Amino acid sequence: MRTGDSRITWRRPQLYPIIKTLATSCKGFVDGYTHKFGKRPFLHRALRWRWEQADKLTPEERDEGWERIYTYRQWLLNNVFSAGTVVVLPIDDGTPNSRENPPPPFGLLNGYHPLSLSPIAGTPEVTRPIGEITYRSDVTQLNEPLPISVSVVT
């Protein structure tokens, strides 16, 4: 792995290599669909944006990113997910998020986001609702339940 001059360290989120690999592996599906149906399959604009960002990676940056992910994975497995460890993670911040709200700007989760731990570490994860709170819905103008969920990673 390069040291000092690494461009991926500060410019590119840690998950770019995963997205780059995903985009490359889906190319066959997209090409096959386009050939069979005469049009490209629907791909959400956020996904297309992520793929466009990942396309800016050089092969060297992609390889360095994978090295960093593997290093982080080993650290997680050796220091966080030791024998018998259970980690409970929040899924969101517990505030209402209506479909009426404008979507946030496109972005990538970085490798340190709680939702990235299980995929990077290769550990099992179960998500389950554990309760709910009541909030005033802007859409229905009624008090509505908002489920509260957590992920459990071992």
How big is the Rg?
19 Å
Helix coverage percent of residues?
40-55%
Multimer state: single chain
Order of helices and strands: HHHHEHEE
Distance between the termini: 29 Å
The chain-level mean pLDDT equals 80
Overview of the structural elements:
This protein has helices spanning 7-11, 16-37, 45-54, 59-79, 114-121, and strands at residues 87-90, 125-136, 143-153. It starts with 6 loop residues before the first helix and ends with a strand. The protein is flat and about 50 Å long. With 154 residues, it is α+β, with helices and mostly antiparallel strands. Residues 1-11 have low confidence and may be disordered. It has one domain (7-153). α2 packs across α3 (45-54) and α2 crosses α4. The protein has a 3-stranded antiparallel beta sheet, with helices on one face.
Secondary-structure blueprint:
Elements lengths: L6 H5 L4 H22 L7 H10 L4 H21 L7 E4 L23 H8 L3 E12 L6 E11 L1
Helix pairs in contact: 2-3, 2-4
